[in-house]
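Weekly puzzle thread! Below is a chain. First person to post its structure in token form gets bragging rights.
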Amino acid sequence: MNRRRGPSGGRAAADRRPGLLTAVPALLLAALLAFPGLLPNTPGHLGSLVETALPWFGAAVPVLLGWAALRRSVAGVAAALVPAVVWACQFLPGYLPGGDGARADFHVLTYNVGGDRTSPADIARQVTGTGADVVALEKVPASALPAYEKALGAVYPHHTTANTLGLWSRYPVGEVAPLDLGGAWPHAIRALVRTPGGDTAFYAVRLPSVRVRADAGFTIEARDRSAAELASRIGADRAARVVLLGDLNGSLRDRGLAPLARQLASAQRDAGRGPGFTWPAAFPLVRIDHVLVRGLHPTGATVLPDRLGSDHRPVLVGLRG
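Winning reply:
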């Protein structure tokens, strides 16, 4: 004998459906936020791309909450709160005040000047105005290097350059070595700087660029190889104090930069506030410009505005030995 479902039974099933429709994507989102490393990196280095954009996945939470509220689904709202809690645990601590308020021994700055987008005189005025003691500039046009040396020389009498990289310092610089990381140009300079915190090995870095392409996905192969080579060099560096300044063309959450993240501590994580996004300068979506340290304590980390036309924002960090 066929049994017909009454009005109450049909209504109960309909009430459960919106909760299920919200719960499934909500729990998948929570799993992705909590365990992005489980996402395979093929095809197209999808895992690295998701890790790079991971903070922005939290934008899906209000959508899920709004959908559940619109359907008046208590179960759906509860499910949508799960990724909200996971996101808060992952990223909210970064919005709390960082650093210990101690006075820094010296300040460092990294700035991708954007090639011909900016002028040496304007960059020099902005850089010297920050009060930084050691400055790494990336993507400096080779033809403009003499102008940069002239503009910065009065404040930073010690400097070294290689291809599109430059390191300027108030303190004496020695043991300079351009590093071949396997790319088309020297992607790093290593120099020993006599800082108030003691002799410190500085690495001015610009890793190979990455792109998102329809036919190749997230093109990070060259960057990852250079990052692994740089991490190996830093791991073998006997200097007690190490500072890496530069454009790594990636987020430290990206598994491709894990070799560097294991070697050095992030100044933004330890002493910054907020996500510290640096690129693109007009509306930053990701942090690809970094200050990483070993044997030094960051006292503060700040992303400065770019008013000169670069596509990157400069990063200023105080350090104590």
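Puzzle host: Confirmed. Bonus trivia for everyone else. Confidence is low (pLDDT under 50) at residues 9-14.
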